[in-house]
Predict the 3D structure of the following.
Amino acid sequence: MRHFIAWEVYCLRLKYWNVKPFEKQTTPSMKVRFKKPIKWYQIIGWDIDINNPIAQHWNDLTEWQIRAIGRFMFNTRNEQVETKLFKQIVLSILIVPKPSLKNIVKSVILLSNVTFSELEQYTDFVFDPKELLTRFPNRIKIGRWPFCKTVYGPAPRLANTTIEELSYADTFYYKWITENNIDELHRLTAILYRPSVEPTPEDRRIPFSSLTLESNSRITDDIPLHIKFMIAHAYYGCRENFINRHPNVFPRKKVAEGEEENAPVKPKPYQPFSKIIDSFAMDEVQIFGRHQQVEKVFAPKFLSIYEESIKREREKERNRNTK
């Protein structure tokens, strides 16, 4: 074993001195010999490249980075943290995709060669309101072996979430944001994360039912709060994505000339999705069928059809007014 390690080190040295094995070479001077010194991490076989790209979008982060940033943001949500310190902590997470010795060494080498002012730009997406996190943690393990349980989250952008599930989730999310009640955050997680069944092309979670919410919450209550905080953050990103894609379903107030954009506005009373579902089920056309069939339609498809129906109704109204 010792001879094998010695041979590996010998070959590595020949590689970095551009010398072929068993080839006659004149003894290089000390200046030439140490022109390309071997780093200690190269001797043990690590190929560390500090030029690897750093994630600049929420959805480019690894799950470990999302959880680490979530822990920091949740613990400091009620405190005033200096902007520079906040950026330094976020940057220390961004340059470590996964918590391994190699990545930590790589981050130390990077910070010793590049100044913070040069790397500070990579944290801008955290402060950009247009940058949205629309990807949920894929699965979460709860408890320890042999009593460990696993729950699975929705697809990115809530692509496999039914409109009934979205209706409950949005109600709990709205209460969590407006009332800052931690119980609503627990309920939001219990809605979105459920145990697995035999996986289907659309979803590997058990089908959503409001009757199983209480039993499912007994499992998800043990999920750490900072992870639930990032689940709510991802839900906010998906919610904003729906609002931007369907402006007629979610109309925003237009800012008039001379009016301040951030002027205080009296909030409108919250309207749950359940009323929209009821209106579709009671409509004469009944595009999706009866009430129970409407509830099982995926939310993106439901909102897309609802957006188109509003456009057509407004077009008919304009045609009637022109006659």
